[in-house]
Amino acid sequence: MPRALPPPVLPQRVHIIGSGLIGTSLAMALVRAGLVVSVADASPTNEALASDLSGARIGAGDPVDLVVVATPPDVTADVVTHALATWPNAVVTDVASVKEIVRAELDAKEVPGRERYVGGHPMAGREKSGAIAARIDLFEGRPWVISRTETTDPDGVALVRGIAEAAGAVVRLLSPTEHDAAVAAVSHVPQIAASLVAARLADLPEDAVGLSGTGVRDVTRIAGSDPVLWTQILTGNAGAVAAVLKALAADLGQIVDALDSLAAATTPDGQIEAPGARAVLARTIAAGNTGQARIPGKHGAAPAAYAVVTVLIPDEPGQLGRLFQDVGDAGINLEELNLEHNLGQPYGQLELSVLPAVAADLTDWLTARGWRVHD
Amino acid sequence: MPRALPPPVLPQRVHIIGSGLIGTSLAMALVRAGLVVSVADASPTNEALASDLSGARIGAGDPVDLVVVATPPDVTADVVTHALATWPNAVVTDVASVKEIVRAELDAKEVPGRERYVGGHPMAGREKSGAIAARIDLFEGRPWVISRTETTDPDGVALVRGIAEAAGAVVRLLSPTEHDAAVAAVSHVPQIAASLVAARLADLPEDAVGLSGTGVRDVTRIAGSDPVLWTQILTGNAGAVAAVLKALAADLGQIVDALDSLAAATTPDGQIEAPGARAVLARTIAAGNTGQARIPGKHGAAPAAYAVVTVLIPDEPGQLGRLFQDVGDAGINLEELNLEHNLGQPYGQLELSVLPAVAADLTDWLTARGWRVHD
């Protein structure tokens, strides 16, 4: 499949079907970008709310050149099919979080005009849903997958790229199969793991739940997700998710065996003999280190990819401003930063992550300007 | 076992053995509280650093009435044994994250004076370790488990409660068995789940890892933990962890079966028939909702005290300097900040944590200066 993206093209008129979080946020961003946008929703209330929030008109009215299907995933293929028939000259894209099943259904039914369908998946969301939760900057800096096959019309890809970039997203090109395997690992399996860990807390004594700290809070934060939506998502990506879960379950089985042998080998005087068992545990945590380090962004790759320069910041208003003015004057771009600010301590510790090549320069530059720096 | 806590009593002299994150942070907090504190560590460097950071003296010197063993868990019982013999009039407590195994070893070896041992576990930590990562507020608002049995000296419990509350922690009373079962569910199993999910990312194509969002980041944040330390922790609590993991593995098995049947039942035209399979998925997510709702406090206890204002930062040198100049001009002090910055993306999302009372002012101030802000 060709990997190169055609240059972005802005559509003249965009019609968005579905006025939930994604559809309404997209309408807001595209109206801001100066496009002519219309919205439609099965619920007149949502439709009117989306129009009020975004300034988009209600109902397609004029002929459109791009239709965005922003409905729940389980009806996406049907709505796409209907849109292809209703607007025979328009490109139709969607925002469903699974892609292979939509493509497969259109092909199996030999839906007329399906070459005008361009699969899409903006990787953006919030814990809150619905038009009321919409944000004009929901897609800023987020990946937006365009999922096409050999038969997909390149002009259609150009239009979808156009609106994705107009909304501030970063377009990535993946085949439907590549996309579904990727989201199984980076989205669907983490959701299941969070839910399974959280479910273990349901019957715990109050005293025990009271010991919860930031670790379990982070691991289970997304366990608050909507069961209905997630049942649709997981059903639509069952094969890819099952494949990842089976590999995870195999690792889990090894850990349980290792813990069983350690528990059985624990003698009252604290001596534990269980050859190889500790190695299984250490390998598991180490493998997690490796995988976690690959995640882009502040929780992931940065510590490995960047050099960290730590600066002590006096706990006074304006000090950070003075520091970043100095950093700005140095012309050095900060990749990431994190402030360790301890109440009751006179200093905060600010960690500046920069490209390794400029770390020494930054240290010298800031030291020369009176900052207490260590790297 | 009596559930009532004796009133707190402040010790005259506290000696802390082990100058890692916990030992050094505790020294800082207790010196601030006005206690006479001494530190000791197998490493003279760590010992000196802990003394510099906290103001505690090096070496016990005078007789002490409370000894805190803050060593790695695999040597805790031995160090406690030695401390009970070295200070025959002192109460000895520890900070090990597993309690039954320490108690069992002291009993099995019939260690003299073991009635003076009071098991403790401050539920506080960071991804970073060592004295250099110490924070004076590490224990603020955190649970500190006191784990005693019928034979434990009540006066000793009163002393441990004294230092725990002096460090800002909230004391909870649990038996060693209750404690170990609780931390298995709220700490050890979440760690394993995070590591297992992160390990699935290790061999993923770069395109796929690039789709990672905040969900997988949160689930895998603690997957960066130290394999050696965690092997010790899991080994020391093998039985309780295995019990929780087996229940989790059973749930996981049901999900894999449900996904397999859904995948097998998926026909090319998108119709999926697999009676009961969807219900298994929905029940899993719903059970996660229930368990997650029981977790006290908000996501990341400390930050919950602040209001978060999020600003979009163009990925250009000097932009952060300009922003913090504006923040400084506002005369508003930043409590914490985090930059969410993904490579290849035009914007970073900077989270500014401020006192709730000034959040709206900061939002207006920055918006008026052309920043894209949402709270």
From TrEMBL, chains A, B:
<dbReference type="GO" id="GO:0070403">
    <property type="term" value="F:NAD+ binding"/>
</dbReference>
<keyword id="KW-0057">Aromatic amino acid biosynthesis</keyword>
<protein>
    <submittedName>
        <fullName>Prephenate dehydrogenase</fullName>
        <ecNumber>1.3.1.12</ecNumber>
    </submittedName>
</protein>
<keyword id="KW-0028">Amino-acid biosynthesis</keyword>
<dbReference type="InterPro" id="IPR003099">
    <property type="entry name" value="Prephen_DH"/>
</dbReference>
<dbReference type="InterPro" id="IPR046826">
    <property type="entry name" value="PDH_N"/>
</dbReference>
<keyword id="KW-0560">Oxidoreductase</keyword>
<dbReference type="InterPro" id="IPR050812">
    <property type="entry name" value="Preph/Arog_dehydrog"/>
</dbReference>
<dbReference type="Pfam" id="PF02153">
    <property type="entry name" value="PDH_N"/>
</dbReference>
<dbReference type="InterPro" id="IPR008927">
    <property type="entry name" value="6-PGluconate_DH-like_C_sf"/>
</dbReference>
<dbReference type="GO" id="GO:0006571">
    <property type="term" value="P:tyrosine biosynthetic process"/>
</dbReference>
<comment type="pathway">
    <text>Amino-acid biosynthesis.</text>
</comment>
<dbReference type="InterPro" id="IPR045865">
    <property type="entry name" value="ACT-like_dom_sf"/>
</dbReference>
<feature type="domain" description="Prephenate/arogenate dehydrogenase">
    <location>
        <begin position="12"/>
        <end position="289"/>
    </location>
</feature>
<dbReference type="Pfam" id="PF20463">
    <property type="entry name" value="PDH_C"/>
</dbReference>
<dbReference type="InterPro" id="IPR036291">
    <property type="entry name" value="NAD(P)-bd_dom_sf"/>
</dbReference>
<comment type="similarity">
    <text>Belongs to the prephenate/arogenate dehydrogenase family.</text>
</comment>
<dbReference type="GO" id="GO:0008977">
    <property type="term" value="F:prephenate dehydrogenase (NAD+) activity"/>
</dbReference>
<dbReference type="GO" id="GO:0004665">
    <property type="term" value="F:prephenate dehydrogenase (NADP+) activity"/>
</dbReference>
<dbReference type="InterPro" id="IPR046825">
    <property type="entry name" value="PDH_C"/>
</dbReference>
